[in-house]
Amino acid sequence: MKDTEFNFDGQSITVFIKKENAGTIRWSINPYHNRNYYLDIDFVLLNFAETKELFQEIACKLKKPLQVMLSSAEKEKVAFLESAGFVCKRKCYETEAEKQEYIGQICEREIQYAYAGQDIYKQCCELMLNRYRLLHKAINPWTGSREDFFKELPDCVAYTCIGGEVSCFAFIEDAEIAYVYGRNISEFRLFAQALVTELFKKNEEITFESDDCDEMAMELKQLFKNQSEESYNTYVFEVPRVQYNEKYTTLTGDEMELRLIHFEQGNDVEIPYYWYEIIPKELNKPVGKISIRLGDNYHSYYNGHIGYEVDEEYRGHGYSYQAAKMVLPVAKEHGMNRIYLVCDEDNAASYKAIEKLGAELVEKVVPPKDYFGWYEGMPVQKIYRLEIL
Fold it and tell me: Which CATH number, 3.40.630.30, 3.20.20.70, 3.40.50.300, 3.30.1950.10, labels domain 246-387?
């Protein structure tokens, strides 16, 4: 791409082809889904032939996957994204349904209601968050806190119980169904029919969104006829994997040296990382190990981006703090402006080192069962966020 140049200016990228301005691509970060950069593309670039190479260079520069939200009706723009290597990860259907469009059963099954502050409401919030994380982790994982998610939920949840346990529920606000949950599709179908029957007693029209990655929401959509198949889609361009760089074989500071033990390419669960021996210059021998993990996925929020261990006989000298400071530039040079650090709630030495780095506590939480490092009896984890300056 000798004839192509980029001008990165703040949160925009201007593309020049043979010195001519070919268009602008703006980008932003959603703090609640911050694995990907959200792009706003000036589609004057539609006629640019080398689209895949263009976005490969941008993704390598930004060090994150790229994401575009686009209506399926914009066929020329969709074709442009697909030719560039973007993959449609999610389709979202918006439904505004009237009574006469309902083709499900009239179901008078009892629906119960709970409201913000009540125990059942809190239980539904936790279940919904876990399901939401699971559904979105392959698209753009949820990276906000529990409290961030909960405050987006309506104050009312409709639910049913089977055997004394919540089996299905939906957060509702007036005539809108916001989020849905079911233990299985057959139970949810009955619940959805009962809920729709109930809502149409008070409303002429109900509204909801259905993501194609959510079988419960799609089941709700199937209860109505004459609905548009136009969808609002999420397209993602994955950043090429981090490659080993000899530059990071040895990291040298005033009082300490970090020597590379191993570089791991990573996979769908574990992100790439460099793993080092911690060698204080005054001792000239290893006293522990530290890793810096590069990138973001669903699991990295709970696993953290730095992992360290100091041999027991060498603890209390601030070695983990010094080593952590030394690996921060590696993360920065891979396009990371913030990282998460995680430790057990009762590990005072660890969280004091984390706080000394300037990290701020995000939340205390027991990670969900679908986190790869989860185990029975796992203690509460303190999750910190550190801005890399």
Answer: 3.40.630.30
